[in-house]
Amino acid sequence: MRSETMVSFTKNMLKLDETLEALLLEGLGVQGQSVRAHLDLLGHFVWLSHYGLPPVTEASETMQAHYDNTMNTMIFQHEVEGLEVRLADGRWVAVPPEPGTFTFMAGEQLRVATNGRVPACYHRVRTPSNRERFAVLFGLVQNPGVEVRALDELVDEDHPLVFNPLKHEEYVEWRYSEEGFKVDDALKAFCGVEKVTAMV
Ligand SMILES: O=C(O)CCC(=O)C(=O)O
Ligand SMILES: [Fe+2]
Description:
Layout: H1 3-27, H2 32-39, E1 42-51, E2 60-66, E3 72-78, E4 83-86, E5 92-94, E6 103-106, H3 108-113, E7 123-127, E8 133-142, H4 168-175, H5 178-182, H6 186-191, H7 193-199
Antiparallel strand pairs: 1-8, 2-7, 3-6, 3-8, 4-5, 4-7
Helix pairs in contact: 1-2
The structure holds 2-oxoglutaric acid and fe (ii) ion.
2-oxoglutaric acid (AKG) is lined by residues 49, 63, 68, 75, 77, 82-83, 123, 125, 135, 137.
């Protein structure tokens, strides 16, 4: 991809992603000023992914099921399908690579920022066809060194704090350690308020 294409793609995506993040938070009752303050703490990234030919012709898992440790990730699949998301009832659903569409994926940081109101999306990549695959990912992520905290408006008597402030760098290091791989809900194990109370 030419660099001017990347620059204009990134600029446009940043606007779109911030708009979606703002709509989502405003929908939950967060005031405009707080939304802006939240967005100001975020950086963004672009990833260009290439998956080579799957080793076997039947459906093969090319990326293990996981949560993104981002605020959100927007995924563009180029022609070849593969992205699957797990629904609340445990069923896996394929997301078709429709031209001109993208998938907005809630990450673990959004789960913390929304005080658990927006769950992170569990997903994987399984390429049912014997084809190489390209995907472009754009996302928002908390700036390095800044803790992710639940937004004030989303914590009250009816919605007590679910997560202690999340130190992203420490979480990522622990998440991919032997201990982190052992637990199902790593985020809760790492900074869940309930877990801390239980340990006291
Ligand atoms: O390639 C895709 O469709 C998704 C990739 C993904 O989930 C990731 O890189 O975290
Ligand atoms: Fe992912």
